[in-house]
What we know:
Low-confidence stretches: none
Helix content: 10-25%
Structural class: mainly beta
Radius of gyration: 18 Å
Number of helices: 2
Mean pLDDT: 84
Distance between the termini: 39 Å
Strand content: 35-45%
Shape: globular
Amino acid sequence: ITNPDGSIRHYLETIYHGPDFLHVVGIERIDYPQLAPCDPKNGFGGPGYSAFVAKDSDAEIEFYTKVLEFTILFDTVWETAEGSALGIETGVPFRFTSMYAPNTKQNHFLLLDFKDGNMIDTGVPSHLPNQGLGMYSLHTTNIEKVLQNAKKHQMEILSPIQSVNDAILGEGKVALLRTPNGFYIEIFDAT
């Protein structure tokens, strides 16, 4: 992988194919923090990233970088290789972007944008209540700033800040945003 400064990073990857188009990718980074925190006793870690497909990657990246203040680790165009985890034919070009929440180097988002008309529009919005990845819930320590950013960049706010007492997350404030590609982002700020 080429870093924004032009230097090269190496990684090892293996792919496990499951039912219903499930692809589980195992990745080991060389001389760079692993994708997810690893247990020092056994070396195992949890999910390190979530990937999604965007119809308009420029607008989606603007949302993540301007509203949520994510940083981009890499942003490049690749072509699918034989046996790709994407499960599609060889040679399909796609934009491949890795984004991290502020002050993190693990647990990131991967955005894919298929080029040259290779995007398949199912006609089904990519948000709840539909099947598949329906929403991300993200933690923040300043929900007001996130909503200010959303307003400043004219992003859609589906639900303004509300107080909640969630059985899993506890007490806090929550708001719901929609990305330019129609995906739901829940913002949670613990109190």
